[in-house]
Amino acid sequence: MTSAPKRPESVLVVIHTPDLRVLLIERAAHPGFWQSVTGSLEGDETPAATALRELAEETGLVAAPAALQDWRLRNHFEILARWRHRYAPGITHNLEHVFSLCVPAPVDVRLAPAEHRAQRWLPWEAAAAACFSWSNRDAIRMLPARARLPGAA
Q1: What is the helix (H) or strand (E) element at residue 9, kind and residue range?
Q2: Does residue 135 register a pLDDT over 70?
Q3: CA torsion sign, 14 to 111 to 42 to 8?
Q4: How many CB atoms lie within 10 A of CB 35?
Q5: What is the pLDDT of residue 5?
Q6: CATH classification number, 9-146, choose in 3.40.50.720, 2.40.50.460, 3.90.79.10, 3.40.630.30
Q7: Separation CA 56–CA 35 (nearest Å)
Q8: Mean pLDDT across the stretch 111-120?
Q9: Which residues pair with 34 in a beta bridge?
Q10: pLDDT tens digits, one per residue of 12-37
Q11: Closest CA to 45 of 36, 37, 56, 53
Q12: What H or E segment, with its residue span, contains residue 140?
C-alpha cells in the first residue's frame, strides 16, 4: 500500500528557552541530521494547526495556540533529491512557514522513535551551526532579534 504524496508545504518550529537554548532533534533515518520540529501540512490544515500537531507528535509538547509565535516568514526551497519520491511527480520545491515556541527551561521531550533518535538543547549559536538545513540554521540565527532580547539586532 502506498501513501498519498506529501503536500509541498511545511512548517519549521524553533523551540527555545528565554535564554535562547534551542532544542534540536536528530532524524532517525539520517543520523547526524539535526533539526528543529518540522512537518508537512495535511489536508486542509493551516500552517499554525500543523505546527501545533507536529510539536505534539515529534516532542510530546502540547502548546496553546497563543503560545506559538508565527514569524510570518516563508522559505521557498528545493526539495533534496533523496526526499522527492515522497511528493507527486514533478514537485521539486517546498514552501516552509516558520514558527517558534518559548518554553521556560530545557525539558526532555518524548520523541517519535520512527522519526527521531536523540535530542539536545544547545545555545542558539551552536544549534544554528549543528543544523543540516539552511532554513533551520537561518531561523535560529534570527532568534535573538525575534525574542527581542536587550542588545539584539
Answers
A1: strand 9-16
A2: yes
A3: positive
A4: 23
A5: 87
A6: 3.90.79.10
A7: 16
A8: 94
A9: 26, 131
A10: 999 999 999 999 999 998 899 999 99
A11: 53
A12: helix 134-146
- In this structure, the chain runs to a length of 153
d(CA 54, CA 16): 16
70, 47 Cβ separation under 8 angstroms: yes
What pLDDT sits at residue 12? Answer: 98
Which residue ranges make up each domain of the chain? 9-146
The neighbouring-strand residues paired with 11 are 39, 97
| Residue that is written with C-alpha cell 507536529 in the block | 54
Closest by Cα among 21, 52, 49 to 37? 52
Give yes or no for a contact between 34 and 130, defined as CB atoms under 8 angstroms apart.
Answer: yes
The confidence score (pLDDT) of residue 150 equals 46
The pTM of this model reads 0.90
Question: Is it the case that residue 123 has pLDDT exceeding 60?
Answer: yes
**Average pLDDT score over the chain:** 92
Q: Which grid coordinates are listed for 111?
A: 520523541
End-to-end CA distance of the chain: 50
Q: Which three cell numbers stand for residue 96?
A: 516552509
